[in-house]
Amino acid sequence: MGDDGHVNLWPAPYVDAPVHATVTLPGSKSITNRALILAALADGPSTITGALRSRDTNLMITALRALGAAIEAEGDVVTISPAPLGAAAVDCGLAGTVMRFLPPVAALASGDVTFVGDEQARVRPLRTILDALRALGVHIDGDALPFTVHGTGALRGGAVTIDASGSSQFVSGLLLSAPRFDDGLVVHHNGNPLPSMPHIEMTVEMLRRADVRVQAPAHILKEQTWTVEPGPIRAVDWEVEPDLSNATPFLAAAAVTGGQVSIPHWPEVTTQPGDVIREILVRMGAEARVFDGVLSVHGPDRLAGIDIDLHDVGELTPTVAALAALADSPSTLRGIGHLRGHETDRLAALSTEINRLGGKVTETENGLEIVPAALYGGRWHSYADHRMATAGAILGLRVPGIEIEDIGTTAKTLPNFVTLWEQMLDPVATDKGAAH
User: Fold this and answer.
1) Using an 8 Å Cβ cutoff, are 201 and 171 in contact?
2) 377-392 burial code (b ≥16 CB/10 A, e <16)
3) Strand 20-22 and strand 260-263: pairing?
4) Number of structural domains, the chain?
5) Are 284 and 258 within 8 A, CB to CB?
6) Which residues of 10-35 are buried (b: 16+ CB within 10 A; e: fewer)?
7) Which structural domain range is residue 398 located in?
8) In a domain, 237, yes or no
9) Order of strands, edge to edge, in the sheet holding 86-91?
10) Which stretch of DSSP H or E encloses residue 333?
11) What is residue 430's predicted lDDT score, i.e. its pLDDT?
């Protein structure tokens, strides 16, 4: 892909001095899209402040509007007024939250809801959520995009057993709509350990804030059960935290250049997996401190390799792999076999692209082994994956001559990535981050 002569290549900026900057980031995609669904199913109007406006969240807004919700959006303030749900066509793009969170909502609509998406989205695993809905009595045509949910206006609910080891989004997608099922829902996971548990904890916490009664397992077990009682979803005015996973490339810039990058509005307590980047950077030799709501990372003179299980925070893998490729000792990233079903097969993509630049990356059954090597410039393919694109930008800081194909894919979660990245590297513009 991308070698047809019409590819848009972005020369990744290279620096030979420490980066010093403050970067203000827009809101969390994960929180925004959960809040949008809860608001559309709530018992009255809601306002979301600090909402991320990106391709994924705009796809969610467009889909909920098509289903019948009245949504007004002005910048990062979104007002949602619920309405009866009806037949619609939903474009999922590449958004896992849209393709996995909305089928249960569609089951509550009166009429057929068709789901389509980008070509790359057609290989993303969806049968777990679709078969779960079938087990609950929903008639669905298709097992992957495109598919159609034949909504009847209501769903009895009950109990369902799934293997959600491919994505935590299968559990979250069922839980978000479950209060609106006549009998509520019991979701029983039986399979390999669930990836990205913090994202399920985020879903449970947000449901509880909307006065939904949820019983969640206290420990990570092979078999886990969530129980959601039926009842109204209270309208909540949501305030969205900055997207901490989107912060990771900027913090990595401090780590790989021996500089300092600060991110304002870092939450004291959060369910976002991106918060784990602080621990990772410290283990690799950096300093990370939060003071007065600002996280500051100071990079080390020498970046150390890391042996780490990223099972719960798999979305950080591209950033950590880029850091590991620039470290001075080997790294092992484990517990991330499920990333083969993300926007692209992220393990194959990372090993292919880093090795294309002279790296030494080996795929294992459930992760990557990365041995530092002298990297050189060349083309970095993004695979329509926003986190692959930002990983290439991190490497470009220390390796001259890297050209990133399709940097625009970062608009999935961070529409102004290029502007923020270039401002971070401009000493005159270090405090001109995105308006929060």
Assistant:
1) no
2) bebbbbbbbbbbbbbb
3) parallel
4) 2
5) no
6) bebbebeeebebbbbbbbbbbbbbbb
7) 9-27+242-429
8) no
9) 86-91, 110-116, 147-152, 139-141
10) strand 331-334
11) 38
Q: Which two tokens stand for residue 370?
A: 């990365």
- pLDDT value at residue 58: 96
Name 12's Cβ contacts closer than 8 Å, sequence gap at least 6: 380, 392, 393, 395, 396, 397, 402, 403, 404
CA-based nearest residue to 80, from 214, 185, 233: 233
Q: In terms of C-beta density within 10 A (0-12 exposed, 13-18 middle, 19 or more buried), how is residue 38 classed?
A: buried
207 falls within a domain: yes
Helix axes 317-325, 386-398, angle to 10 degrees: 20
Band (420; pLDDT cuts 50, 70, 90): very high
Q: 299 in a domain, yes or no?
A: yes
- For residue 81, the cross-strand partners are 70
Contact 98, 33 (CB under 8 A): yes
pLDDT(255) > 80: yes
* Count of C-beta atoms within a 10 Å radius of residue 82: 19
Q: Give kind and range of the element (H or E) at residue 128.
A: helix 127-135
Q: What is the mean pLDDT of residues 103-132?
A: 95
The CATH number given to whatever domain includes residue 65 is: 3.65.10.10
Whether 315 is catalytic = yes
Q: What is the pLDDT of residue 53?
A: 94
| Amino acid type, 434 | A
Handedness of CA 262, 263, 264, 270 (dihedral sign): negative
Could you give the CA distance from residue 189 to residue 222 in angstroms, rounded to a whole number? 8
Domain boundary among 198, 228, 258: 228
Are 69 and 107 contained in the same domain? Answer: yes
Catalytic residue among 315, 343, 353, 405: 315
Cα angle at 247 between 241 and 251, to 5 degrees? 140
Residue that the structure tokens 């790989």 belong to: 256
Sorting pLDDT into bands at 50, 70 and 90, what band is 343?
Answer: low
Token representation of residue 150 = 């034949």
Question: Which residue is it, tokens 């009847």?
Answer: 152
Domain identity same for 132 and 260: no
Residues 39 and 85 grouped into a single domain: yes
